[in-house]
Amino acid sequence: MSQTKGTIAVVGAGVVGLTTACRLLEAGWSVDVIASRRTPGTTSDRAGATFTPFGDGTVPEHVGWTAVGYATLKEIAGREGGASGVRMAALRDYMRSADPPTPWWADLAGGVVRRAAPAGYSVVFEAVLPHIDMTRYMPWLDARAVSMGARFVTREVRTLEELSGGGYAAAVNCSGLGAGRLCADAAVTPMRGQVLHAANTLGLNDSLHDEPEGGRVTYLFSFDRHVVMGGTYEPGVDREETEPGAIGAIVERCRSLLRADGHPRWAELGRDELRRVGGLRPARVIGGDSEAVRLEVEHRPGLPPIVHNYGHGRAGVSLSWGCAARAADLAGAAAGR
User: Fold this and answer.
1) Quick one: which of 93, 199, 215, 288 has the fewest CB in 10 Å?
2) Do residues 280 and 246 make contact, with C-beta atoms less than 8 angstroms apart?
3) How far is Cα 282 from Cα 43, in angstroms, rounded to an integer?
4) For 7-335, CATH number?
């Protein structure tokens, strides 16, 4: 085994923690991933993911992380194909507001096409974006980290002081919702999402999204074996359980959206239910921003340098690779090697 620069601890084994671990391993570090849960038991495993940037494109760091995320996921789709669960496919976003601007991320994603909209909508934006089947992607990402030499330590980190005495050159805090407790960060809050997984009996290839209206959002994400129908954004709700009424409303909204998209068998959508999923997105809310990511170095007496990488909210998958690259750079610099 080749000699490494030293060992860095990564707290958290969700999509942010695993991508960070991979980037650190690529940079020549040994990595201990410390987490109480590992795939398939993480919040990331509950996501139904496509590349979905948030924000308004005015924060340079977010734009940079988003660009890296798109490029990396596109590269994985081309190189790994079905094994990773990542593929490129069209997503059509049905807009209701009058004359909405082209999405800020259009150029970095290869462009967005404006299409005529059916009654009730103003325009449809279509782009070819990464689709991430988390039932495959998380095991693939976990296996990738292991193959590169990551060591998994199964335990809950209750305080950052537990990282002292481990001989770590640095640590990266990717604890998601747990960062609220670890860092006494009152901005960290759960945002419950409820979705339904159903068999893809209609052979859907493209995905659909409806501009949020009245606090609701509707999306239909298509994967090889199943579709994910959503959803809800419920700030402050800390229960993972799904609610029959919410799931029923999601199915009806998704059927209406598929009907608007022109599919003749829209009424059959969701009949072959696989599972109902509730998860707590790790939001960090500052002002009107639910994805106020904290990505910075903190120095505490008696502890290794700590890079905080949390607060990704709904955009964890989309931002993960960009934030991982930055976190790895910060950790390496803080460790002085």
Assistant:
1) 288
2) no
3) 9
4) 3.40.50.720
Instruction: Give 288 or 332, the one with higher predicted confidence.
Output: 332
**Residues facing 172 on adjacent strands:** 10, 307
Number of H helices, E strands in the chain: 6, 16
Q: Which two tokens stand for residue 261?
A: 């998209």
37 CB burial (10 A radius; 0-12, 13-18, 19+)? middle
- Interaxial angle between packed helices 316-335 and 60-80, expressed in degrees from 0 to 180 and rounded to the nearest 10: 110
| Distance in angstroms between the alpha carbons of the first and the last residue of the chain | 20
Measured distance CA(51)–CA(64) in Å, rounded: 14
Give SS3 for 141.
Answer: helix
CA distances from 122 to 90, 97, 103, 128, 273 (A): 19, 6, 15, 20, 32
DSSP code of residue 190? E
What is the three-class DSSP state of 317?
A: helix
Q: Once rounded to an integer, what is the mean pLDDT over residues 212-231?
A: 91
pTM: 0.96
HEC states along 254-309? HHHHHHHCCCCCHHHCCCCEEEEEEEEEEEECECCECECCEEEEECCCCCCCEEEE
